[in-house]
TrEMBL record:
Name of the protein in its database record: NCS1 family nucleobase:cation symporter-1
InterPro entries to which the protein is assigned, alphabetical: Pur-cyt_permease, Uracil/uridine/allantoin_perm
Pfam family, any one: Transp_cyt_pur
Cell compartments where the protein resides: Membrane
Membrane-traversing stretches: 66-97, 135-157, 169-191, 203-225, 245-264, 284-303, 323-354, 366-383, 389-414, 443-463, 469-486
Entry's family note: Belongs to the purine-cytosine permease (2.A.39) family.
């Protein structure tokens, strides 16, 4: 199909569902279908292996990941132990993300619609709201963390602005508000142009981030005299060391517990399975080992210089004596934080909100609603409140493992990857995913006990020793309960969604 005709089809799909749905598919419900929730056409998909790779090139090198990884150094893990922890996590993630990504490539649907397969056309709201709710909060938090870097940049360029960074308005300084709102606007503008603009931004930012972090690592290495400390003075040994290695690997997977759920939001635009496999291989195992090496050099180099353990690369950037280099380093950190926010914390709530109100919201409107919520919660206060982080976000995050387990069990083990895509958009009682008034009680019954156990393990101090493995425990329980309760007598069919698909370029 030519580009003009694809655009014409897309415009018609925005105005009325019937314009893109053939008469044979007149059962499609406008409460379940719009141009953003519809499956994507195979012809014209543009996400290749490089685009998948740059997702990870950006996300892996986020400030939050550096803070976590450097924390392993502070706990007493040395260079090779940190690299081994990342390798363990990377191998597991490669497998989990490939399974999740293949689902999107085959069906062409976003995560909220994918969830309808297991939970039913209305029960899927449970999974979408949990995933979107966690993402909205972290969108605000990551924007705040990026604003801190921007404040460092602005004060370095204009020292007089430091006076605006000393007051407090609702917990944030005047300069802090300026930096936060500026970055908030930039992200809203980028995402308002849809997934194609996100693809282009990630493709641009990826190599810039990799080059910048390598440059910072080289600078700290030579600042430390050409050598680094490979561990702290309280290096772990024996069984305790091995436990922390595997806990680190498990937590590395848990950090991506959100992304393994909605990776299909991106791979629904992938050109094929091989693109996902290659992109994941270069972007996860290899890129994560590169990330681990950067962490070792940054943490070990700074520790050798003054015996202190940094909190994140931002701490090193502030010490760069050359203003030009400091500005470039700050810009690189801003690029990566925006890239991470777009892919990990903006797309998921957009699709969740669109799924909730498909007749009212499209991609752009849902993006604005998500961004406004991320602003009004005053995320800097959330970030600085350990109770909120541990109990609210920790509790919600613990549910993601069971959700993943239930969805994977249903799709891969029960249905054997067979999906009737058009029936994902019908409210007809005889639809394959209607179940009981649109809810699959068996999937919900599998989720509830698995989620309850995972939450208890994640937040109750008595289970501290298992807390690092809560995502895996929850996912395993969700998968086990789903298999135990699955109704294997229900007919399972496979029908392509091409008849109701829209162009992948939004």
């Amino acid at each position: 199909m030519s580009s003009p005709s694809r655009m014409a089809l897309f415009r018609r799909s925005r105005m009325a569902v019937v314009d893109v749905v053939p008469a044979s598919q007149d059962r499609i419900s406008p409460r379940l279908y719009n141009a953003d929730l519809a499956p994507t056409q195979r012809a014209g998909r543009r996400w290749n292996s490089y685009n998948i790779f740059t997702l990870w090139a950006n996300d892996v090198h986020s400030l939050g990941n550096y803070a976590f990884a450097i924390g392993l150094f502070a706990l007493g893990l040395g260079a090779w132990q940190i690299l081994l922890a990342f390798l363990v996590g990377a191998v597991l993630l490669f497998g989990l993300l490939s399974l999740s990504g293949f689902m999107g490539e085959k069906t062409g649907v976003p995560f909220p619609v994918m969830s309808r397969i297991a939970f039913g056309i209305h029960g899927a709201q449970i999974a979408a709201v949990v995933r979107g709710g966690v993402a909205i909060v972290w969108f605000g938090v990551q924007t705040y963390l990026a604003s801190v870097v921007l404040r460092v940049l602005l004060v370095a360029l204009f020292p007089g602005l430091d006076a605006m960074d000393q007051n407090s308005i609702l917990g944030l300084s005047s300069l802090g508000w300026i930096a936060f709102v500026a970055l908030w606007i930039v992200q809203v503008v980028i995402v308002s142009f849809g997934m194609e603009m996100i693809r282009k931004y990630e493709a641009f930012a990826g190599p810039v981030i990799l080059g910048s972090m390598l440059a910072i690592a080289v600078w700290i290495f030579f600042s430390a005299g050409g050598s680094i400390a490979f561990s702290t003075d309280n290096a772990l040994t024996g069984g305790e060391m091995w436990r922390e290695i595997f806990v680190g690997g498990a937590l590395w997977v848990a950090i991506y517990g959100t992304f393994v759920l909605n990776f299909c939001d991106f791979t629904r635009n992938a050109v094929g399975r091989s693109a996902i496999t290659r992109g994941n291989f270069w972007g996860i195992p290899l890129n994560m080992l590169f990330f681990g090496a950067i962490v070792v050099v940054l943490a070990g180099g700074q520790f050798k210089i003054n015996g202190q353990i940094i909190g994140s690369p931002a701490d090193i950037v502030q010490t760069i004596p050359n203003t030009v280099l400091l500005v470039l380093a700050c810009l690189a950190l801003l690029l990566v934080t925006i890239a991470v926010n777009l892919m990990a914390n903006f797309v998921a709530p957009i699709y969740a909100l669109t799924n909730l109100f498909p007749t009212k919201l499209n991609f752009r409107r849902a993006a604005l609603v998500s961004a406004v919520i991320g602003l009004v919660i005053l995320p800097w206060n959330v970030y600085n409140n350990p109770t909120v982080i541990v109990y609210f976000l920790g509790g919600l995050g613990a549910i993601l493992g069971p959700l993943f387990g239930v969805i994977m069990a249903d799709y891969w083990l029960v249905r054997k990857a067979r999906v009737n895509v058009p029936d994902l958009y019908t409210e007809s009682p005889d639809g394959e995913y209607h179940f009981t008034r649109g809810f699959n009680p068996r999937a919900i019954a599998a989720l509830i006990p698995a989620a309850a156990i995972a939450i208890v393990i994640a937040i109750v101090p008595a289970f501290h020793a298992l807390a690092g493995f809560s995502w895996f425990i929850g996912a395993g329980l969700g998968l086990g309960f789903a298999l135990l309760l699955a109704d294997r007598r229900r007919p399972v069919s496979e029908v392509s969604g091409e008849s109701i698909a829209v162009p992948s370029v939004h």
